[in-house]
Amino acid sequence: MSTSVNKVILVGNLGTDVKSHKFNDGNMVVNFPVATSESYINRDTGEKVDVTDWHNITARNKLAELCEKFLKKGSKVYIEGKLKTRKFDDNGVTKHVTEVIADNVLFLSNLIGKPLENSMDLDD
Fold first, then answer.
1. pTM for the full predicted model
2. Is 35 exposed, middle or buried (0-12, 13-18, 19+ CB in 10 A)?
3. Bridge partners, residue 85, by sequence
4. Residue 121's pLDDT band (boundaries 50, 70, 90)?
5. Element (H, E) at 84
6. Which of 103, 101, 100, 32 is nearest to 72 (CA)?
7. pLDDT 10s digits, 53-82
8. Phi and psi angles of residue 11, each rounded to the nearest 5 degrees, phi first
C-alpha cells in the first residue's frame, strides 16, 4: 500500500498585509507571507541564534474573504494546508515557487495585532 501525506502546520506572523484578487466569477484568492522563528544555542560560542523562515501562503474563496477581512501585517496565525510547487515563465526564464495552500486558518490576534485573550500562548 503506497500512501503519502502532504500536510503543513505553521504558527507565525504575517510579514505584509494580505494581497487579494477577485475574479469575475465571484471567486477570490489571497496571498501573504508568514514568518516562523526558532532559536537555539550555538554549541561553539554559547550564543543564542535566532532563525526566521518565510512561507508563501495562498487561500481561496470563503477562506480568502475571511483572511482579507481579519488579517494584517503582524497578525499571528495558525495555518493548516498543503505544499504546492508551481512553475512560471519570467521573461523566458522558468522559475519555481513553493507555497502553502491553506485549508484552515485560525486568527490568533485581534484586529489590532494583539494576542486574543482566549488563545493559547504558542510561544512557550
1. 0.81
2. middle
3. 98
4. very low
5. strand 76-90
6. 32
7. 999 999 999 999 999 999 999 999 999 999
8. -130, 120
